[in-house]
Write a structure and sequence with these properties.
186 residues, 9% strand, mainly alpha, two-stranded antiparallel sheet
């Protein structure tokens, strides 16, 4: 993880991102990614801790900027079809495309830090509970909420998939969509 984090830090710095001098970006399995004041240091109240320029953000504006500069950018369909889905949904499919581009994606240093959607079960939240865990929430409001969210996501996925060329759809699986969506875009 330290190599991935180092690559991200360098990408962030080169792109104009800034961390306050005595702030560290760290990772550990219990707290995940987090910021911390270096031991023995103090930060003044009102200090700007992190600054991230617009160019480094992965947002709906990134999708449209990328589309205008690249003929094959997401969605790989006509603009008329793409306008039939929400900007947030378009962003989610764009993230999948960038994930599949790997190191060729401008945002790879960030995407590479997200939980791997190809892992067996990247999350321990209700949407990813197995049957043994689900039995404990049956009949509760959590069961209903879980089902509602899953239905909303599946509807969004089905609508968005219609904007993708048939020949490209194999790359946009439900598993990758839900995992990437769950990790950062919900």
């Amino acid at each position: 993880m330290s190599d991935k984090l180092g690559i991200f830090r360098e990408w962030f710095r080169k792109g104009g991102g800034r961390l306050e001098e005595h702030i560290e970006l760290l990772y550990d399995p219990h707290r995940n990614f987090h910021l911390r004041v270096e031991e023995g240091q103090k930060i003044q109240a009102g200090s700007c801790i992190v600054s991230c320029p617009h160019a480094l953000t992965l947002s709906q504006f990134s999708v449209w900027e990328e589309r205008s500069s690249t003929a094959d950018s997401l969605p790989s369909s006509t603009t008329e079809t793409a306008t039939s889905i929400t900007n947030l949904s378009l962003l989610r499919f764009f993230l999948i495309e960038q994930y599949h581009l790997g190191k060729q994606s401008f945002w790879w240093p960030y995407i590479n830090l997200l939980p791997d959607p190809c892992s067996k079960c990247p999350f321990d939240t209700p949407l990813y509970y197995d049957e043994d865990d689900l039995k404990w929430v049956r009949g509760t409001s959590l069961e209903h909420s879980r089902r509602s969210i899953e239905e909303l996501w599946k509807d969004e996925y089905a609508q968005g998939l219609q904007t993708i060329r048939q020949s490209d759809r194999h790359r946009y699986t439900w598993s990758v969509f839900s995992d990437l969506m769950h990790s950062r875009l919900s």
